[in-house]
């Protein structure tokens, strides 16, 4: 084999952020022919990341539709990739994490007997509906994968319990840390004038909350708690990056619009998001990725969910899982706002998710698997 033909497949902004540094690393290696296919499960937000990292896909399925369903996404990815695989015949495809693109991409490769590498493998909540549909997407992808790039020892242990052979698991760290080394700038000036106008010497809380399992009462409780937080603390400002889905946006607008020191902004691009996180005091979120990103910047995270597939940060002390009950949110937020020692213990805890070399390890692992190197190279340890 002269070169390994590697096709990277992704379709949403979170996937793109975490796959972009891997694409760049693949392109640097002489032993690899790197190809990129995007599904555009999310169109505009995906394109922002492609522009930021200067990635031009070789193939673009452009599947996004208004009011798209999980079934529709799955069907369009399967059908679109079938023709591409017939043409390209990659040696291995790489998918990331837990999106519908990820699962459908792995399934399409399996149907063509193409090897599958799963980046960010082994995360589990052990409840198939939390988060939905992500928990089953990543578990089913794990069943189809040949190479499992686990970010942590805990993720590796999950895979071993499911019967994955140890020789097919590589502990790499998380590629999002690689990405943040590119995006974060301590002297950053925002494109948003509203963000530039905020006094970051205050205790600025960055908030995201939009997951399906929080629709309805969960989002309402979060909003009511945020309202009380700013009313109780004059030195606090809140920046809520509000998902454009009307199911979320209408509730947030109802409870939080036109309130002093609460800034409701649409989702930001990746660079703006990472730099807002870097300037803020703490993060409150139901996102998975922010649980990895914020600790890298020394920002405590309150997770607005009842379960998480990222227990390592809880064990390290950088994250607290608090659910969506109004009283619980207030209690934990007030502790971080008022108790300096408690805040310091979370902000100075070691991030267990990476050292900025995950992409390097993943590419080395692929080359090892295809016989270009004789031994497994060093794994990520924290």
Automatic annotation (TrEMBL):
It holds the Pfam family Epimerase_2. One of its GO terms (molecular function) is UDP-N-acetylglucosamine 2-epimerase activity. The keyword Isomerase applies. The keyword DNA damage does not apply. Residues 24-366 form the UDP-N-acetylglucosamine 2-epimerase domain. CDD domains: GTB_UDP-GlcNAc_2-Epimerase. SUPFAM superfamilies: UDP-Glycosyltransferase/glycogen phosphorylase. Its EC number is 5.1.3.14. Keywords: Isomerase. NCBIfam families: wecB (TIGR00236). Belongs to the UDP-N-acetylglucosamine 2-epimerase family. This is UDP-N-acetylglucosamine 2-epimerase (non-hydrolyzing). It comes from Clostridium simiarum. The lineage of its organism: Bacteria, Bacillati, Bacillota, Clostridia, Eubacteriales.
């Amino acid at each position: 084999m002269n070169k390994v033909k590697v096709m990277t497949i992704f379709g949403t902004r979170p996937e793109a952020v975490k796959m972009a540094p891997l694409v760049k690393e693949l392109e640097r290696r002489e032993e690899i022919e790197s190809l990129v296919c995007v599904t555009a499960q999310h169109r505009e937000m995906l394109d922002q990341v492609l522009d930021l990292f200067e990635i031009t896909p070789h193939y673009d399925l452009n599947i996004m539709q208004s009011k798209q369903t999980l079934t529709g996404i799955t069907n369009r990815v399967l059908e679109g990739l079938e023709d591409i695989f017939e043409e390209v015949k990659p040696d291995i495809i790489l998918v990331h994490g837990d999106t519908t693109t990820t699962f459908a991409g792995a399934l399409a490769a399996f149907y063509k007997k193409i090897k599958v590498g799963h980046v960010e493998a082994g995360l589990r909540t052990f409840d198939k509906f939390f988060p939905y549909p992500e928990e089953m997407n990543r578990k089913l992808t794990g069943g189809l994968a040949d190479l499992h790039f686990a970010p942590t020892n805990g993720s590796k242990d999950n895979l071993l319990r499911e019967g994955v052979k140890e020789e097919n698991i590589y502990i790499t760290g998380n590629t999002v840390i690689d990405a943040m080394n590119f995006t974060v700038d301590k002297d950053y000036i925002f494109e948003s004038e509203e963000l530039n106008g905020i006094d970051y010497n205050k205790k600025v809380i960055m908030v995201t909350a939009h997951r399906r399992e929080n629709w309805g009462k969960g989002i309402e409780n979060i909003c009511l708690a945020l309202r009380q937080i700013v009313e109780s603390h004059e030195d606090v400002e809140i920046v809520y990056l509000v998902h454009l889905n009307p199911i979320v946006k209408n509730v947030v607008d109802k409870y939080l619009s036109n309130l002093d020191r609460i800034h409701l902004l649409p989702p930001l691009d990746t660079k703006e998001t990472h730099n807002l996180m870097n300037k803020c005091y703490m993060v409150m979120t139901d996102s998975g990725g922010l649980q990895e990103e914020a600790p890298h910047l020394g920002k405590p995270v309150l997770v607005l969910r009842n379960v998480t597939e990222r227990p390592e940060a809880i064990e390290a002390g950088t994250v607290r899982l608090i659910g969506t009950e109004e009283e619980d949110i207030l209690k934990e937020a007030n502790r971080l706002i008022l108790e300096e020692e408690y805040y310091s213990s979370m902000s100075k805890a070691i991030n267990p998710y990476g050292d900025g070399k995950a992409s390097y390890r993943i590419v080395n692992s692929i080359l090892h698997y295809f016989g270009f190197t004789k031994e497994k190279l060093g794994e990520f340890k924290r």
